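Subject: Sanity check before I submit

Could someone independently write out the structure tokens for this chain? I want to compare against mine line by line before I put it in a report. The sequence has 338 residues.
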Amino acid sequence: MRERGPLTGEDFSAPRWFANAHLQTLGAALPFFTPKEMPGALAETLSVPLAEGGALKAEAFWQPGEGGKASRRRTAVLVHGVGGSSHSQYMVRASHALFRRGLHVIRLNLRGAGDSVATAPSLYHAGLTADPRALSELLGRDKRVDGIALIGFSLGGNVLLKLAGEWGHLPPFPVKAICTLSAPLDLDATSRRLEELRNLPYRVYILRGLVHQGELFAQMHPELARYEPRSLRRLTSIREYDRRVIVPMHGFASVEDYYGRSSSGPYLHAIRIPTLMLHAEDDPMVPMDTLSAAEDASDQVSFVTSKRGGHVGWFGGFGEKLWVDTWALDRVCEFVTR
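---
Independent answer below. Compare away.
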């Protein structure tokens, strides 16, 4: 394990037949060993108002305390990746892992994703930090919350790293830690990697999620959709989706302008919140050479890589424990509960 920062631990390993990067990556999306219920949790749907109007929806699972009310605990906020939602398999499994460790858990739907689409003022994008910022401010006023840990998967990790850099020397008091799993640091390079033929299955899968979100948003908010929803199904690349949908909706000059202004790499030096970044060297989506941006990160950032693990994978084999309490989530739990 290559690491920068105080975290220590054994390197990830999986059975030889399951160590392939593509099998590990596909596992994140497959519905294997995903618990259906959250035993003992006090479930609640949160509505998170946004400054520009509209609101986000988040699924909260509170640890019970005395009298049937929620206790005061550290709270983990999970932020999904591109094309995902609070219902994504990796989000659900991670929420169980963290809840079992005694944390409150909240699964956020970024604007336009999952249950947030009906009340969203726009679709989310890779650099739009207002959504986790708004939820952090809301939770900071909640007496059930004793410190917040923000945890981002893939694109959600890019959003959180950029947000931490924007906060700089003035992070909000309740936010105690940030963790990211397989976060891209250079969106342009990652987009080009996804255009490679070997990554066609991932590109198709991600596009399917984006197209569904784009069509649903246009159906519910036709006056806000600056694109033709019927044309989205003809798109063959994520870059073209960003050019057609995200660039005009959010006022970027071009897709290159969008990627340049939204990539988290340039923000790492300004982070002042204890941060854990986890990456696998065999990640098929995030180019390893782009992770060199972590060399310029502040001393609050622990950067840990494993030789294997794929993209948001790190499954040690088959079985619920190995798919819920993964190598990566063990390290996240250790980090946020310290």
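---
OP: Matches mine. For the report I'm noting this point. The mean pLDDT is 94.
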